[in-house]
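Example record for the data management plan.
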Amino acid sequence: MLKNMRSERMNPFITYIEDTLHITADVSAYEHPDALPLYLRNGYELHTLMIQSVPCLLVRPVEKSNLPAMRKHIDQLKKLTGFDCTLCLENVRIYTKDKMLSEGIPFVIAGQQIYMPFLGVALSNNEIRDVPHIEQISFTTQRLLLTAIYEGWTQATLTDTAKALELSKMSITRCFDELQALGLNAIRNKGRIRHFIWDNGRRALWDAVFLFFRNPVAQEYQFGIKLDIENRKLGGMSALCHYSMLSDNPYMVYSVSKEEAKTMKLNKIAAIPKGETPEMVVQVMRYDLEYKDSVAIDPLTAIISLKNDVKNDPRVEAAIDYILEECLHD
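Corresponding structural encoding:
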């Protein structure tokens, strides 16, 4: 139980602090707001928090603010109140989180991370965890996100996710860490159990993570002969055309796994000279996502696998828009 009064808006932050640090927090509204300048009094919701006899001030911006302004106001509040101050934020960009960590600005992001260096604590989701800085996600995390989009996940535990992807819990733990580092507020705690939670719909999830996706084509071979691999899935442009009304190139693109490429000894087959039109293209993929249509690789992966100059073609752009409408509607 929490002591004293606090606003409902502070509940997620206090609950997360209690659950993560395994404590009962003593919380109360800041007692001397009238002694503060009007812009601080009206711009922030202030609560005093006592943790293991160490007091601090929880500071929640009433309206969205940029980091330079919050940094300045935190410094002023610390001087005026005598308390270490911790920002309470619902969500932040990766860059902002990194800046706060590098500058030692204490913060709590409900359901994601706690950083209170004045306590000697840097915790995330119930245990000391070094959340990595990432600019691109792993292919395992990419599979997780694409599966969540296709299946319309709104909530899944770490264990449920491991079963769905047929991976170990350790692998999914790393995926959850990566997603947490993206600042999506998609990984949250319920008690001691980590959950993937997303209730904003498929399109919003795709828009949020698309820039972090990596091209899954590990190797591409262009051949002047047709190989006997028509039983393999279509890849690249051929897959895109399969899922849309776009006309394909004169040659087909097929996808194979790394193991299949090794068995077929694709690297031993002579490729055509650069600039010539191939008879067949074979792409070696880093993953193969199960999809209801087994003729081609899944449509979102097909989009991700296209090179930028191909995507910029107006006809291809129209095909991509059509496929996204089909895949991302809720």
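Summary line stored alongside the record: The first strand starts at residue 26 and ends at 29.
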